[in-house]
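Quick one, tokens below. Sequence please?
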């Protein structure tokens, strides 16, 4: 059985979040207003007009839209943005324009990001003086090749 996502529409003029196609992972999030995101790293915090109540044991992940990233260099600044199950405020999306030259215009109602609802493990924390050994060990960035 699928979990229930309770949505409070704070802006009745915007569409209710929905999956664009059957089998899609992300719900579309829409902009509440018009914004210009300046080139070369300009940012904007954009409201979505919704608040949600996530089911216990789940989190929301606000992710970029691939078309906006490919065509305009627009991405979610802190991707993925994490929404904790206890948060009840409006979901806001921080967008950045990575295009070096062109500003990007967001219009009210534009789809600006996608929201994934994912289960979250909350393990018990156990302190240890050492960890078990593995084949990889302490090899970090780039340790498995290019």
């Amino acid at each position: 059985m699928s979990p229930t996502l309770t949505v409070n529409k704070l802006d009745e003029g915007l569409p209710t979040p929905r999956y664009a196609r059957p089998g899609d992972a992300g719900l579309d999030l829409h902009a509440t207003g018009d914004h210009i995101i300046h080139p070369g790293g300009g940012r904007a915090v954009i409201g979505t007009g919704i608040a949600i109540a996530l089911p216990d044991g789940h989190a929301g992940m606000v992710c970029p839209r691939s078309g906006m990233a490919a065509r305009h260099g627009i991405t979610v600044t802190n991707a993925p943005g994490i929404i904790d199950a206890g948060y009840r405020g409006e979901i806001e999306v921080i967008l950045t324009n990575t295009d070096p030259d062109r500003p990007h215009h967001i219009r009210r109602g534009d789809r600006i990001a996608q929201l994934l609802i994912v289960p979250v493990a909350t393990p018990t924390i156990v302190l240890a003086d050492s960890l078990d050994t593995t084949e990889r060990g302490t090899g970090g960035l780039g340790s498995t090749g290019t």
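The helical segments are 66-72. The CA atoms of residues 17 and 83 lie 15 Å apart.
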